[in-house]
Amino acid sequence: MKSVGAPELRENKLQYRSANLNLYIYPDALVEDYLKLCPIDHTWMGLSHAIRDKLNSEFQIPEKLRSLPGKLIYFSLGFTGSSVVELMKRMMSILSKSKHRFIIVKGQFLNDYELPPNMWGETFVPQVEILPFVDLVITHGGNNSLLETLYFGKPLIVL
Questions:
Q1: For the whole model, what pTM was predicted?
Q2: Model confidence over 135-158: pLDDT tens digits?
Q3: Domains of the chain
Q4: Which residues of 111-138 are buried (b: 16+ CB within 10 A; e: fewer)?
């Protein structure tokens, strides 16, 4: 960024703050508590959410999972987490022992490991369309996953 004239970031800072306008996207109920501890100035504007639109794919629970017993759990570690094949293999091994069913976001290394019988997954799945069907979400805590899970009122485990 320095090569195009941007100033250096301050130590331990990951983003620039504008003197004119800064945006945050988080539910009002969560922001209220944060602001009690860390007030922000007039340059900040909040948006209560940015829930993605459905893709109109009319997602249905895969036949493979429909006939199995147990709760339906959505598992996503985001682009980066799902790219660590050994981590995904280990998590699938652990979750395979569960009596529950899982929808897995496998990420870009889709063909590098097999899913156990209680799981179904793809490189990408329409998260906003799946969330209404699930009983629990296990995620890395990315912004979209967190906000969309809260939006649909689902229990959440953040790894």
A1: 0.75
A2: 999 999 988 898 899 889 999 999
A3: 19-50 (no CATH), 66-158 (3.40.50.2000)
A4: eeeebeebbbbeeebebbbbbeebebbb
